[in-house]
Prior knowledge:
four-stranded mixed beta sheet, globular, 19 helices, D-Maltodextrin-Binding Protein, domain 2, alpha/beta, 2 domains, five-stranded mixed beta sheet, 14% strand
Amino acid sequence: xxxxxxxxxILGLSAVLGSGSLGLAGCGSSGDGANxxxxxxxxxxxxxxxxxxxxxxxxxLTGRRVLVSTMTSDQLSSTYNVKLNAxxxxxxxxxxxxxQEQLLFARNGWLTEFNDLVADDSExxxxxxxxxxxxxxxxxxxxxxxxxxxxxxxxxxxxDLVDAPPTTLExxxxxxxxxxxxxxxxxxxxxxxxxxxxxxxFSSYLYSHGADFIVDGRSGVGSPEALxxxxxxxxxxxxxxxxxxxxxxxxxxxxxxxxxxxxxxIDADAVYQNFIDPATSTVGDRTGFAAFPAGPAGxxxxxxxxxxxxxxxxxERRDIAWEFIRWASGPEMxxxxxxxxxxxxxxxxxxxxxxxxxFPPDLAESMAAGIETGVGADRPDVVQxxxxxxxxxxxxxxxxxxxxxxxxxxDASEEFDEFLVRDARQRQL
Length: 429
């Protein structure tokens, strides 16, 4: 946590060292200089809502104005690509997806390295950050950000409609199909179906069928196990899901479940409040949570650091940007946010029994199960993640539509193999 003595130290450092203290290359003055307002870009997320309520605390401690921009994840990615390609200094702190943007951004020289920042900071306590999330912000020993949110898929289900949550994927399908009644406005299941956007949630079905996106450097999406996962997920949404499932992302499925129009949904546990908030949900008091159901290979959900904070390499305010990150993701603030139901990447927060009571008991159990058996990625681990998701997401759509999913998976696998050859050449930082 940033204390007043730290704030005074940073104000002094900025006056003496200016923007050069973190090795900034010259890149113009459109960022308003080292003493200009700190510009922070965040995604629409429960973590963002919680930290925005506390921004005034940081401003009071440092005397520095903070300008926050909040966008959807797609808007955020577009903004980063435009500004970073132009070496623009008018972004300082960036909320980003380590699994989505980091390899590309680091390879392009767009991110500040954090090794020296975290190495000797005992109060920040880098060792307290969980190993998996730390690995995801590190490339060849070089740290490019700090993880702030962990998440896993959880099964949201209507406790008033099913006696107990299904423990297997096949059981979930059978129950969803039996209760599916679109004529009365009730769907058995709702989940992401939009091509590239569905890939992250589909990954848990893939892993739980014993498959993976990449196996020994080659495409894994053409394997019999992967085909079984594609077929299952498509059948689930085609036979028990709402019309238009191939256009649906989290933004569409949340209100479907929250308004009582679905028996089951599977999505990230970090956004559970969106499903049960009394202000928007009519079934929050009837919603239960359970671990990801087991497939042929068991329950193998993703368990990832979904969002992190990093610093634009072209920022003119990298000293104060680090102090913002230090304040927002340090042990004290992390515990405060987890006490409000925001799942963190710090061991100390999860070890605090009081923080666990911020979550519904069955959700906490679901989280614990996901941490125990989870896989540390929810998409292909490549440089051009967006293109990879587009390729491996194609059979998802084919399966939902009832098309020839075997042919689609075969074509996708061949294209993905070619993609991986090019990607291997791009991975060198």
